[in-house]
TrEMBL record:
Lineage: Bacteria, Bacillati, Actinomycetota, Actinomycetes, Streptosporangiales
Keywords for the protein's UniProt record, in alphabetical order: NAD, Oxidoreductase
Protein's UniProt name: aldehyde dehydrogenase (NAD(+))
Active site: residue positions: 251
Pfam families in alphabetical order: Aldedh
Organism: [Actinomadura] parvosata subsp. kistnae
Domain of life: Bacteria
Family of this protein: Belongs to the aldehyde dehydrogenase family.
Signal peptide start-end: none
E.C. numbers: 1.2.1.3
Enzyme class: oxidoreductase
Residue span(s) of domain Aldehyde dehydrogenase: 18-484
Quaternary organization: Homotetramer.
InterPro entries in alphabetical order: Ald_DH/histidinol_DH, Ald_DH_C, Ald_DH_CS_GLU, Ald_DH_N, Aldehyde_DH_dom, ALDH7A1-like
C-alpha cells in the first residue's frame, strides 16, 4: 500500500493542488507514495510562516540548538535501516550505498552539534583608546532549500543541519520522485523538538517552486536560497537571487575528469573508475565523466576497464550490486538521449547499450519492468563532442588520451565544469601539478571522483556552482552573516582615521 504525503507548513498539512506518483524504479508498477503537490502560493506562504517562526528560534541559545542537532543525529542513527530501505525502494540506490548515505547525515550532525558552542566571533583591537571592536555571526533569516533526489536524505542534511544550527528557519522543497524519503527525514528532524514552522517541507513542481520562490523574494521572506540540481536550473536560480542582491548556494552538475598517468597503478585506477562511473548508475553530481588516460597506457587501461564493467553486477538494488535502476522515468528518457550522442568515430568497448530487457539482456538479467540500463564505456571521445563537453547523468563514461600533463589539464578543464576531479599517479609531482592546474573545487589522488566527508568543503566552480561550499566549518558562511560592532567608552566622539595618535619615527636614522 502506497503512502499518502502532503506538504507540512507550520506543523500542519497543506492543501494539495495536484498529485504525483513516486514509483519504485526497480519495479515501475509499484507506487511508493502518492504525493500532494503544492502551488506557488503555498510555497510563498510557507516562507511567511518560516519568517515568523525564525524570530523565536534565533533567540534559542546556540548551544541549545546544538543539542537539537545532536538529537536529530541519534534519531537518524536509530532509524538507519528503515530510512536506507526506503531510499532503496524509492530511487533504486543499492542498499549498501543507501546505508552510507544515511551515515552521512549522522556524521553531519556529529560535526555540527558542537558548532553550537563554536559560533565564534572575535574581539579586535581598535586604533583608538577606550574603544572595543567585536564581530558576531548572525543567522541570515529564512533559507529556501531545493534539493535533487539522487541523494534524497544526505544532501538535504548538508543544508538543513547547519542552517537550523545557526538559528535560521527553512522551507525545504525536495524532489517529487524522492518524496517519501524526504518526508521520513522531515519527521525525524521534527521529532528532535524543532518548533512548528522552523522547518517546513513543501512538495511542488518546478514551475510552482520557482514562482513561489520569486514571490517570497519579492516579499522579503527569504534571505538565502540553497539549490542542488542541474547547471541549467542553477543559472535561473542565480539570476533570480541576483536581482534581489542575494547570492545563492549553488551545487550543480559536473563533467568530472579522471587523469591516468603512465606511472599509475592501473588496477587501482580501474577500480576507482568503475565505482565513480557506474556507482548509483552514474547518477551522482560527482560521477566520472571522462577518463583522460596517457597514450602509453591507454590500451591496457581500456581493456581492463571494459573487462571490469562487463563483470560488474547490475540488478536488484536490495542485493549486492554495483548499480540498480535509473532514478525515475524522466532520467531514463534523458539518458536515452545521451546515447544518441555516440558518434561514428566513437568505439563502444562494453557491448550492448540501452535499456536492459528480454530482447537486450545483460547476461541472465532481463531487467523485468525496472529502469535498468547497460553500463557503457565509449572510447575515442574528442574535444567538442557532446559526450566530452556536457554532463551525462547516467551510466556512460567517455575515454580519451593525452601525451603531456599540460594537455591533460587542458582536456580536464575544457568542458567548463569544476566540481570534482581525480588523478591516478605514484609521482607526487604529478599530483601537485594536477592540483594546481585543475579548476575543480575537489581533487582526489588515487581515489575516485565520488565521495565526500562531512568535515571537508564540498562544492564547485564554473558550470558546477558559484564557488559556495557546503559541509564543514565553511558552510557557516552560507547561513550566517558577519556583524561588526564598536563600543566607545571614552566619553567623547572619536573619529576613525582622524583622531588617531600619531607617533613620528626618525626615518633618516642610520647606524654609524
Amino acid at each position: 500500500m502506497s503512502r499518502q504525503i502532503v506538504s507540512i507548513v507550520g506543523g500542519k498539512d497543506a492543501t494539495a493542488a495536484s498529485t504525483y506518483e513516486s514509483i519504485n524504479p526497480a519495479r515501475t508498477g509499484e507506487v511508493v507514495a502518492r504525493v500532494g503537490l503544492a502551488d506557488a502560493e503555498t510555497f510563498a506562504a510557507a516562507c511567511r510562516t518560516a519568517r515568523d517562526a525564525q524570530r523565536e528560534w534565533a533567540k534559542v541559545p546556540a548551544p541549545v540548538r546544538g543539542r537539537v542537532i545532536a538529537s536529530i543525529g541519534r534519531l537518524v542513527e536509530a532509524n538507519t535501516e528503515r530510512l536506507a530501505r526506503l531510499v532503496t525502494e524509492e530511487i533504486g540506490k543499492p542498499y549498501a550505498e543507501a546505508l552510507g548515505e544515511v551515515r552521512e547525515i549522522v556524521d553531519t550532525c556529529d560535526f555540527f552539534l558542537g558548532e553550537g558552542r563554536r559560533l565564534y566571533g572575535q574581539t579586535v583591537p581598535s586604533e583608538m583608546p577606550d574603544k572595543n571592536l567585536f564581530t558576531f555571526r548572525n543567522p541570515v533569516g529564512v533559507a529556501a532549500v531545493v534539493t535533487a533526489g539522487n541523494f534524497p536524505v544526505a544532501v538535504p542534511s548538508w543544508y538543513l543541519v547547519p542552517a537550523l544550527l545557526c538559528g535560521n528557519a527553512v522551507v525545504w522543497k525536495p524532489a517529487e520522485y524522492a518524496a517519501a524519503s524526504a518526508h521520513a527525514l522531515f519527521r525525524l528532524f521534527t521529532a528532535a523538538g524543532l518548533p512548528d514552522g522552523v522547518l517546513n517541507v513543501v512538495f511542488a513542481g518546478g514551475a510552482d517552486t520557482f514562482g513561489g520562490l520569486e514571490r517570497a523574494l519579492d516579499e522579503g521572506t527569504v534571505q538565502k536560497v540553497g539549490f542542488t540540481g542541474s547547471s541549467e536550473v542553477g543559472r535561473k536560480i542565480g539570476e533570480l537571487t541576483g536581482r534581489h542582491l542575494q547570492s545563492a548556494c549553488l551545487e550543480l552538475g559536473g563533467k568530472n575528469p579522471m587523469v591516468i598517468m603512465p606511472d599509475a597503478e592501473l588496477d587501482l585506477a580501474v577500480e576507482g573508475a568503475l565505482f565513480s562511473g557506474f556507482g548509483t548508475a552514474g547518477q551522482r553530481c560527482t560521477s566520472l565523466g571522462t577518463v583522460i588516460v596517457h597514450e602509453s597506457v591507454h590500451d591496457a587501461f581500456v581493456e581492463r576497464f571494459a573487462r571490469a564493467v562487463g563483470a560488474a553486477r547490475i540488478g536488484d538494488p536490495t542485493e549486492d550490486v554495483l548499480a540498480g535502476p535509473l532514478l525515475d522515468r524522466k532520467f531514463a528518457d534523458r539518458y536515452e538521449e545521451y546515447l544518441t550522442w555516440i558518434e561514428p568515430h566513437h568505439k563502444v568497448v562494453t557491448g550492448a547499450t540501452g535499456r536492459i530487457t528480454k530482447d537486450n539482456p545483460r547476461g541472465g538479467f532481463d531487467g523485468g519492468d525496472g529502469l535498468y540500463y547497460h553500463p557503457v564505456v565509449v572510447d575515442g571521445v574528442r574535444p567538442g563532442d557532446r559526450l566530452f563537453m556536457e554532463e551525462t547523468f547516467g551510466p556512460i563514461v567517455g575515454v580519451t588520451s593525452f601525451s603531456t600533463m599540460d594537455e591533460a589539464l587542458d582536456l580536464a578543464n575544457l568542458p567548463g565544469y569544476g566540481l570534482s576531479s581525480s588523478i591516478y599517479t605514484t609521482n607526487p609531482q604529478h599530483a601537485f601539478r594536477f592540483r594546481e592546474g585543475i579548476s575543480a573545487g575537489m581533487v582526489s589522488v588515487n581515489n575516485s571522483t565520488s565521495g565526500a566527508e562531512a568535515h571537508l568543503p564540498f562544492g564547485g566552480n564554473g558550470k558546477s556552482g558559484n564557488g559556495s561550499r557546503q559541509s564543514g566549518m565553511w558552510v557557516l558562511d552560507q547561513f550566517t552573516r558577519w556583524q561588526a560592532m564598536n563600543w566607545d567608552h571614552s566619553g567623547r566622539l572619536q573619529k576613525a582615521q582622524m583622531d588617531v595618535a600619531d607617533i613620528v619615527p626618525d626615518l633618516d636614522f642610520r647606524l654609524a
